Amino acid sequence: MAFWDGLFPGRTAQFDSGSAASNSIGLTRRRPSVSLTKQGAATGNLRVNLSWRMRTSDIEGRSRQSGSLLRHPSKLFKPEVVQAHTQGVVNVDLDLGCMYELADGSKGVIQPLGGFFGSLNSPPYVNLSGDDRFGGSSGETIFVNLDHREAIKRLLFFVYIYDQTPAFDRTHAKVTLYPSNGPRIEIELDERAPQARSCAVLTVENVKDELVVRREVKFVYGFQAELDRLYGWGLQWGRGYKTKA
């Protein structure tokens, strides 16, 4: 959890982000960036959503493994390095966060850990709507008020696994951006990194009054402090905890 002046945790209500377009843009290694400004989507509320689910292959693999155990009972005594992500085996809690740097030089983080939910209508103009601990269909959502885009220098959206077994390779995670206008923007966390605990997913930067979204998808084996060093944010980090549900 990060500590700095001027940021107070507080929950706010859900917000509308405009009508979602039926089509989408997928950011990949070959096409890593898109301009919100050129799409006419640099105003209103930008909704950034994290969703995840168990990979189908893991369910099938678990069924095949059960059959193998019947034929070879001795395998019961051989522990697995990383077990499949099922509700009965590994409960993965993916969290969505955002480091921000404003035009006036102030920096901070928005994340469930520590209760830093931000604010939509006052600095940093970034707000986390809540904490989904179970991978529900709605996932987790961060809103960015682009009507104050001139106050935003850069944003780094990241995903981390809170206090559970590293299992990015066992989940199918996706971050989707819903601008106020134009197609949604999708980024799949599809690179296998079985021991990683955090992933820098995307950046939104104000480059000469143009808002540019860039795919990152960089996995690290530490937590937010390691992402901070990777992108040169310069925040002070300490161990944080969630309140029990």
Automatic annotation (TrEMBL):
What Gene3D superfamilies would the database entry show? Answer: sav2460 like domains
The record's annotation in InterPro entries points to: TerD
Name this protein carries in UniProt: Tellurium resistance
Give the organism the record lists: Streptomyces lateritius
